[in-house]
Amino acid sequence: MLIGLGWMYALSRDIGSYSATADLGQIAAEADIGLRDLEVSIRDHLVYGDDQSLLDATLRHDGIVERVALLDKAVADPADRASLTKVKGSLDAYWAAVQRVIAIRNARNAVLAGELEPLVAQARDRLSLLKSAGGVDSTALASDAAIAVLLMQEHLTRFLERRDPQDAGRMRAELANARGKLAEMNRYLWIAGTQQAITEVGQLLDRADGILTRLESAVAEEDTARSEGMAPNAAGIAANLTEIRQRAEARAGSLRSALAAGASGYATAALWTGGILLLVGLVAVWLIQRSVGRPVNAMASAVTAIAAGRTDVTLPALSGQDEIAAMARAVEILRDTSIESERRLEEAQALQDRLAREKDRAEADSVAKTNFLVNMGHELHGPLTDIVNSSQSLMSELHRFGADELATDVEHIQWTGEQLVSLVDALLDYAKIEAGTMDVVLQDFDINRLLVEVRERSMPAADLHGNSLDLAAAAGLGQMNSDFTKVRQALLNLLDNACKFTEGGSVTLAAEKTERDGGIWYRFTVSDTGRGFPAAQTGRLFQPFVQGAALTGGVSRRGAGLGLTLVGHYTAMLGGDIEVASEPGRGTRITLFLPATYSPPPADRPLQVGPPADAAPADPVGSGRPLLTVGALRPVAQLTP
User: Fold this and answer.
1) What contacts 374, CB < 8 A, 6 or more positions away?
2) Which residue of 7, 143, 190, 499 lies most exposed, with the fewest beta carbons within 10 A?
3) Whole-prediction pTM
4) For residue 356, what are the CA distances in angstroms to 78, 200, 353, 361?
5) Are residues 61 and 29 in the same domain?
6) CA-CA distance, 47 to 54, in Å (whole number)?
7) Count of domains in the chain?
8) Domain residues for 567?
């Protein structure tokens, strides 16, 4: 016994030394892994600029500091102490460089949002005034200068993202191009007031030149901080942590060998002791089996019967407070519980049957509702179409007879009739979608002509609420092979919503071509300066028969609440996706991503809101991605292609 206790004491001491050495290596390894995670979090923050990644980086830095503090308490070897001192210095220098890079990035973003973007907007406003100051030449020069300013801003965005000197050169070239167009315009235009406008635009371009120089300097300073402050210090931290870990692993290996040698002697003694204890145990088991085996076998038979579903079993009558009596009481509780479970199972089955019957009734009611919508839609569509056609004929006759005031009233009747026809068409489309009979009709159509058409058709709604309706799209966007009617109706529904919930503001329809997953896609964006809504309400806006005013607390508007619902279904049918960004009081931006060439989606995609995303999903047609995503309400110029 004393020999065993001596062996146990020696082993416990060696095991303690081995455990401390292994813990030291483990802490160093965790600090090394934490450094890599910290670099990933910092890289994410520099790419996306969100607060969550910065918070994550701060927490990871604090975790590394805690592990370094643990190492500081644990290391005793002089070499480890020297390496740890280097780790502390490199970590402080690395984190200081990170803070410097973040400060430079925040200052740069402030210059972009607070100086450059307002300056570009002012320059475009002045150039818009110059378009109508002269003839065709002045209009073309002003348009070219405005496009050059936009391209300068776009190349600046790419330069800030990719650090490509070619993007910086193109940015400067576009600024020079805008100045050249302005100088040429100065030679042609001599109408009063134009010289002042040209001078103002020139001054704005000079200020833009200075801002570009500051941004280029900020980029260079940030790259220097990253290359000279972050990279070498991170490498130094990793190298010194590796040295500490390797030395700890070497010491742990030596201690492991000593433990193996000591355990061998202890194992011999333990085998002899175990043999004796085994013999004693066999005798004890034989005695216990005689006194305990019979009641235990009886209870085992009872448990088997209960497991087979029988509850009419007889349990052995045992009294007392020992383990056997407690087991008998537990089996009795098990039997009572089985009886209660059977009763509840019968009640659950009855409830399930009732719910199934109610489900069948609900499905029948849904079919009846769909049939009612289809029948009523067809019954209303014909008379409403006759009203619109008759109003058009009557308005033409009244204009011919010179009764312009009456013609205006008839024109209002015609417009109201067209709105009712659109409402009936929306109800019919929704009924077809519910019935699963909506088809996709493919044809080739020009994007620019589509944009012009939907803008012209939405102008009355914009004028009704005192809004401006602008079109922002480059010429020559190309063609789509898709369902023209569904794409047009989706854009009309978005513009109608934007005009209804914006009073005396601006509505913008933008479109651009982009590349995704090796194919050509189009991004259509409808943005407004209206009242907006909380991001948490996004999913409800796309539910059928939900009015936007009910979510934002505004005045109820016309419509059945199907506009955004149909937009969602059309987008899903055409293989696209939707990004919604809105804030109360700041307006709303809804973006449709549609493939240039239609291909059937692999599976149905429900109208549900996915997690927030800064950009469109990488797999927009995959069944595993949500149809709707919530984005940040950023300016259109900052959207990632």
Assistant:
1) 428, 431, 435
2) 190
3) 0.42
4) 76, 74, 5, 9
5) yes
6) 11
7) 3
8) 439-638
